[in-house]
Amino acid sequence: RDQCICIKANAQSCGECIQVSEACGWCTDENFLTVGESKSARCDDLESLKKRSCDPTKVENPRGLIQINKNKPVTIRKKDVPEKLDPEQITQIQPQKLTLTLRSGEPQTFDLKFKRAEDYPIDLYYLMDLSFSMKDDLENVKNLGTDLMREMQVITSDFRIGFGSFVEKTVMPYISTTPARLINPCTGNQNCTSPFSYKNVLKLTNKGDEFNRLVSRQQISGNLDSPEGGFDAIMQVAVCEEQIGWRNVTRLLVFSTDAGFHFAGDGKLGGIVLPNDGKCHLENNMYTMSHYYDYPSIAHLVQKLSDHNIQTIFAVTEEFQPVYKELKNLIPKSAVGTLSSNSSNVIKLIIDAYNSLSSEVILENGRLPEGVSITYKSICKNGVVGTGENGRKCSNISIGDEVSFQISIESKECPSHGKPEVITIKPLGFNEEVEVVLNFICDCQCASDGEPNSEKCHEGNGTFECGACKCNDGRIGRLCECSKDEVRTEDLDANCRKDNGTDICSNNGDCVCGTCECKKRENPAEIYSGKYCECDNFNCDRSNNKLCGGHGRCECRKCICDANYTGSACDCSLETSTCLAKNGQICNGRGTCECGVCKCTNPKFQGPTCEICPTCPGVCAEHKDCVQCRAFQAGEKKDTCQQDCSYFQLIKVAKLPQPTDQSFPLTHCKERDANDCWFYYTYAIRNDNKEVYVVETLECPPGPDIIPIVAGVVAGIVLIGLALLLIWKLLMIIHDRREFAKFEKEKMNAKWDTGENPIYKSAVTTVVNPKYEGK
């Protein structure tokens, strides 16, 4: 991002360059620019200037700094110490004054320490609504002075109290202007004093009994409408420092009422249209301009209370709590307490509100110059860190606690007048502040050593500063060699056309005073160059989507390749290591290595190193016949062995060498001859010599043993016969048992006839007398 900012800024001087960004530097080397580069090319980020061979000692890059002018330590003070200090001798914030030198875009950060002092003096002014509804409250406030003095001794030994009262503007319709009502605005037999806007009854004093005496003499007054004119009174209390008696200590304003408030614009009801002027108008302790100036606005009150370091406590009844809580959110360093109907709890309310206000510190700063920003970071009690708006404040601070803030101030631009500015930072409600003087770096140091009307700038037509010419009014060009009034555009353009062509600066630049100043690209790394901007460093051939294949640099649209690379896109490697085959040969001896890739000359071979041959027999099958004929005088080539098989060296061994025994590739082979005998050998290429190690003995299978075979056959036949007989016998037994079981079953189921035999004749003959009657 910063690279783009610097190069795109088109800075024409060192001063312009350093205001672009804190990352930008200006090269003051006179010979830094190349042909076609404009003065603005001197402005770039520091890393790019280094890459472009600018001597680091000739890079102008001023930095901001912080100088502490006043750094008085915070005061360590205890109430039981006999020696008392004046308020002016107490320090709660450190440092007190700094000088910051700012460069555009470079923040300067400093630490600010705050410690809440012990036994710090307090001024309290009690501002009370004396309209008729506050009659019972006045009775309880009459003894407030001595009671509050006694209670505040716990917090501080230096306490002062004052009293003031308010009612309303003394015009219609806020009060009745009839003569009788102007004397006694109350009805019935009530004795009330004349209405008034604001009265300073008692200047701040350390005499509590004096407070009681004067308050006891006060009388209630009255008005017509419900809202009161309290804002007029608050304004006068804030701005009339001398009449009130404010010291540069903790200032508390207690605002006691049981009603709402009028604010800016309400004065129109009484014909008052002039805005409140925010000035003191007390005469004889009475506000005299209430009929002339409108009520102040809330923003106006906020400003005056802050300017005079006054912390406000709103002591209001329960009914108006919501209204005053909203008001509290608009007024920094303010608190709201619930006042009982007769103000009997006012002392506790004041002490609780004071403890709440004093336990929080909020930093604010004065008006910032144009282009200057400020950020806060708080490191509060127990290491709690706050940022953003929370970075301005710390809460729950007890007496003697110390907190710190990291404050960063940054300038986005150099102010037009270039003069120092002063801002103040202070904790709200405290009289102490930090003064910060801002100096701005608007130009480079080398500019002060510039040579006016230098001969280096074409006959003295410019000031030579920071390695470049700063032209006088009316002069243009890199060396101020041209006048805007004397040179015609046609003459200038002619010098910017290459070979009398039609394109000015090759359409890649602008013709300035007859010289091409090349355009800048979106990417600062991409540069046009050349007398006519005809060259660039980004339009060279690419490989793998990389400029010059990533192995070279682009100069004037041509690749300048790194060592071991060649080609128009530097995509051709001269390294041959990627072409080595397993046997150590380049492309397996069957191709050439081009740009790091094998080109196989034998079409049968393929692969990255020409070692793959899908149609070729294996090494073992290829050399089987030759090994067989030379080692064992057998095989298909035994008749032509001398002619066909002398291309390798044959070595007979009892045991073949293992691959770990050799430093060259070795192939183990196992082949079978026509007699079913196995022979073993290895094939290897060492130093271009082909070697074959063969086991000198064949591994043939032994002949068959006849007797065991015949005995086995006979035994097999006998065993098979016996097995068949056993199976037949078993089947017959099973069949017989089944038949017998069937017979038994039929026998059991047979039923015989029990009648007489029809052919049977008994041997006994019985004759019956027909005349016999059984008598």
Automatic annotation (TrEMBL):
Domain Integrin beta subunit VWA: 13-444
Topology within the bilayer: Single-pass type I membrane protein
Swiss-Prot/TrEMBL GO biological process terms: cell adhesion mediated by integrin; cell migration; cell-cell adhesion; integrin-mediated signaling pathway; muscle organ development
Transmembrane segments: 706-728
The Integrin beta subunit tail domain, residue ranges: 620-705
Keywords: Calcium, Cell adhesion, Cell junction, Cell membrane, Cell projection, Disulfide bond, EGF-like domain, Glycoprotein, Integrin, Magnesium, Membrane, Metal-binding, Myogenesis, Phosphoprotein, Receptor, Repeat, Signal, Transmembrane, Transmembrane helix
One Gene Ontology term of the molecular function aspect: C-X3-C chemokine binding
Domain (Integrin beta subunit cytoplasmic): residue spans on this chain: 729-775
Disulfide bonds: C14-C24, C17-C54, C27-C43, C186-C192, C240-C280, C414-C669, C442-C446, C457-C469, C466-C505, C471-C480, C482-C496, C511-C516, C513-C548, C518-C533, C535-C540, C554-C559, C556-C587, C561-C570, C572-C579, C593-C598, C595-C641, C600-C610, C613-C616, C620-C629, C626-C700, C645-C677
Nucleus as UniProt keyword: no
Main location: membrane
SMART domains linked to this entry: INB, Integrin_b_cyt, Integrin_B_tail, PSI
Pfam families assigned to the protein according to its UniProt record, in alphabetical order: EGF_2, EGF_integrin, I-EGF_1, Integrin_b_cyt, Integrin_B_tail, Integrin_beta, PSI_integrin
Domain PSI per the UniProt entry, residue ranges: 5-55
GO cellular component: cell surface; focal adhesion; integrin complex; lamellipodium; melanosome; ruffle membrane; synapse
Compartment(s) of residence: Cell membrane; Cell projection, Invadopodium membrane; Cell projection, Lamellipodium; Cell projection, Ruffle membrane
Family from the record: Belongs to the integrin beta chain family.
The protein's name in its UniProt record: Integrin beta
Organism: Gouania willdenowi (Blunt-snouted clingfish)
Upper classification of the organism: Eukaryota, Metazoa, Chordata, Craniata, Vertebrata
